[in-house]
């Protein structure tokens, strides 16, 4: 592990796939941004990109097996010193060896000695990716806390297309940074939101039907609370508008509301003072047209009463469309379901455009995913077409990643 304040040590394991050539670009991104990178190619990787390329780009000699410099016990040293291990391309064979704890070269030995976060970026033919053996190995690795990115979809080595492409080097780099920052959030982030005012919404709105009943949703508010708490810990002045009854986060001004209309009033009132507005609330799109004054009773003939709904205002679109302050950053959240990751992201990109926000934090929801859970996996889309995965982690980890992304869009403060 590096000392606080020194440049992070990254072990870049390169697997034997044609996409190894793209990893040279990832290596550049890492070294040019001050990381100390030790490249550990597999023997097969050197068939695709030779040792001189890795040595020249990293400024260090590269080793592939445990017998070179054996007196230094390199696999133990590399594993201990690393702040992050990134494996790209992670071939089907490497995923299998890592999942089974095999240790037949320097890279797989290092994977067993490393105690830091591990990120794997797969690349292979679609059939190999979809094979139950590979999927089981990925599930094993993820269950152990390894971050395995989904491969991108598109043109593969030959004329074929489909899921299996190496994610873009910029995206692997962004995921690497997010993991390093999650591991040292205090050091990386202390005070970087000082002097900023942020407005956050959380929880699901409750739209009353009568004095005792409402239409609601499953949002727990936990992600919005984590967004607010992390902003406060990074020095921001935070106003949290919430429907949830979770305990107030430290150092956050909490304003409680119930309905979408109440949330809209408070948000529009507070937005002009905010440098950043984060709409993490699950706002109901519809509300009952009439709220009964008295509890709705069963009728003698048991006919269910009709519920007529009307549209709620879209608070996010309204805030994003009428920026009260220049340079304000507006962030939306989208919980989407889809038949594939790309379908989810297609819906989300259309939503970002429709709402007019700067960033959209996208969760894929399904059974046991996201709602009320303590962990979350998200992708942040930006209005310029960028797509930034945030590594799986707690909702606080995701909040750190979201604030890093917001900071990169905030204009520097005057003075
Ligand atoms: N949102 C809002 N006001 C609404 C509905 C949603 O401000 N009336 C905000 C949410 O807080 C969230 C984002 O819009 O940040 C996306 O919410 P979502 O429910 O996914 O968007 P919808 O426009 O309702 O899309 P869908 O048709 O998929 O439900």
Q: Which strands sit side by side, in order, in the main sheet?
A: 12-11-8-13-16-17-18-19
Helical proportion?
A: 25-40%
Largest sheet: 8 strands, mixed
* Radius of gyration, CA atoms, in whole angstroms: 24 Å
CATH class membership of the largest domain: Alpha Beta
Question: Can you identify the CATH superfamily of the largest domain?
Answer: CoaB-like
Shape: elongated
Tally of domains:
2
Q: Under CATH, the topology of the largest domain is which?
A: Rossmann fold
Which ligands occur here?
Answer: cytidine-5'-triphosphate
Distance between the termini: 36 Å
The stretches of 5 or more residues where confidence is low (pLDDT under 50) are none
Annotation field: number of helices: 15
CATH architecture of the largest domain: 3-Layer(aba) Sandwich
Category from helices, strands and their pairing: alpha/beta
Count of β-strands: 19
Strand residue percentage:
15-25%
Q: Can you describe this structure?
A:
Helices cover 35% and strands 23% of the residues. The protein folds into 2 domains: 175 residues, Flavin prenyltransferase-like (Rossmann fold), CATH 3.40.50; 220 residues, Rossmann fold, CATH 3.40.50. The mean pLDDT is 89. The two termini are 36 Å apart. With 415 residues, the chain is of the alpha/beta class. Helix 1 packs across helix 9, helix 4 crosses helix 6 and helix 5 crosses helix 8. It has 15 helices and 19 strands. 45% of the residues are buried. The protein binds cytidine-5'-triphosphate. The site of cytidine-5'-triphosphate has 14 residues, from helix 13 and strand 16.
């Amino acid at each position: 592990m590096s000392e606080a304040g020194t440049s992070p040590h990254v072990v870049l394991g390169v697997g034997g796939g044609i996409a190894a050539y793209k990893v040279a670009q990832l290596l550049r991104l890492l070294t040019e941004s001050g990381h100390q990178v030790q490249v550990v190619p597999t023997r097969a990787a050197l068939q695709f990109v030779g040792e001189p390329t890795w040595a020249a780009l990293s400024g260090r000699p590269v080793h592939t097996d445990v017998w070179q410099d054996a007196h230094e016990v390199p696999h133990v040293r590399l594993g201990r010193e690393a702040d992050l291990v990134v494996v790209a391309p992670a071939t089907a064979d490497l995923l299998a060896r890592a999942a089974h704890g095999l240790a037949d070269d320097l890279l797989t030995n290092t994977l067993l000695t490393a105690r830091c976060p591990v990120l794997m970026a797969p690349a292979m033919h679609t059939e190999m990716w979809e094979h139950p053996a590979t999927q089981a190995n990925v599930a094993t690795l993820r269950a152990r806390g390894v971050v395995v990115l989904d491969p991108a979809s598109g043109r593969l080595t030959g004329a074929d297309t489909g899921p299996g492409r190496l994610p873009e080097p910029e995206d692997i780099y962004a995921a690497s940074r997010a993991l390093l920052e999650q591991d040292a959030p205090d050091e990386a982030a202390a005070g970087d939101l000082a002097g900023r005012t942020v407005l956050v919404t959380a929880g699901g709105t409750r739209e009353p039907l009568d004095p005792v009943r409402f239409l609601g949703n499953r949002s727990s508010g936990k992600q919005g609370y984590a967004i607010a708490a992390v902003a406060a810990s990074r020095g921001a002045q935070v106003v949290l508008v919430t429907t949830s009854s979770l305990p107030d986060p430290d150092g956050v001004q909490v304003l409680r509301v119930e309905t979408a209309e109440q949330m809209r009033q408070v948000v529009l009132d507070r937005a002009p003072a905010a440098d950043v507005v984060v709409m993490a609330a699950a706002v109901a799109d519809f509300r009952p047209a009439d709220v009964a004054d008295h509890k709705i009773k069963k009728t003698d003939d048991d006919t269910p009463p009709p519920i007529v709904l009307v549209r709620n205002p879209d608070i996010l679109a309204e805030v994003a469309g009428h920026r009260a302050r220049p340079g304000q950053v507006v962030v939306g959240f989208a919980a989407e379901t889809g038949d594939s990751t790309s379908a989810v992201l297609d819906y989300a990109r259309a939503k970002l455009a429709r709402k007019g926000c700067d960033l959209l934090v996208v969760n894929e929801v399904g059974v046991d995913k996201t709602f009320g859970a303590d962990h979350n996996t998200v992708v942040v889309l930006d209005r310029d077409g960028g797509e930034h995965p945030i590594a799986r982690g707690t909702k606080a980890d995701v909040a750190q990643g979201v604030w890093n992304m917001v900071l990169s869009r905030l204009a520097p403060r005057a003075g």
